[in-house]
Amino acid sequence: MVNDKIIGILLLIVSIIVIIIYGWLVFFPPQISIMGTTIDIFVLKLTGFIAILALFGILAWIGYTLATTPPPKPIEEIEKEIEQELKKLEAELKEQQKEGVKDQKKEQQSQS
């Protein structure tokens, strides 16, 4: 519980610091040039690239999952499997009941 609060506070502080630095770099940029552009344009380009990367990365993951996941069984096939299992259980139950009746008869005969 204490660790969760510490992690939460750290996440809050880091997020606020990143927001402040990002705003400063975009709206009040120092005169620094990165790859031929000013830092504010570079930060905006980097932000756009990361957003596109995240969006299409998620779409690619969804596509991969859809392409590699086998299709589900038809409902009819599942129903047949359930019916077969029920029949097996009913047969086992009948056998147990028959054995129980036989055991009771043996006990009655031995008591007589």
Written account of the structure:
By secondary structure, the protein is mostly helical. The chain folds into two domains: 1-69; 73-112. Helices cover 83% and strands 4% of the residues. The chain is built from three helices and two strands, in the order αββαα. The chain has helices spanning 2-27, 39-68, 75-111, and strands spanning 33-34, 37-38. A two-stranded antiparallel sheet has the order 1-2. A hairpin with a 2-residue loop joins β1 and β2. The longest helix is centred in the C-terminal third of the chain and has 37 residues, at 75-111. The N and C termini lie far apart (69 Å).
How are the elements arranged and paired?
Elements: H1 2-27, E1 33-34, E2 37-38, H2 39-68, H3 75-111
Antiparallel strand pairs: 1-2
Tell how many strands the DSSP assignment holds: 2
Instruction: Tell me, rounded to a whole number, the average pLDDT.
Output: 91
* Topology order in helix (H) and strand (E) letters: HEEHH
Main sheet strand line-up: 1-2
The biggest beta sheet, please? Answer: 2 strands, antiparallel
Structural class: mainly alpha
Integer-rounded radius of gyration: 35 Å
In DSSP terms, counting alpha (H) and pi (I) runs of 4 or more, how many helices? 3
Helix content: over 70%
Q: Beta-strand level of the residues, as a percent range?
A: under 5%
In whole angstroms, the N-to-C terminal distance is: 69 Å
Number of domains: 2
User: Which regions contain 5 or more consecutive residues with pLDDT less than 50?
Assistant: none
Shape: elongated
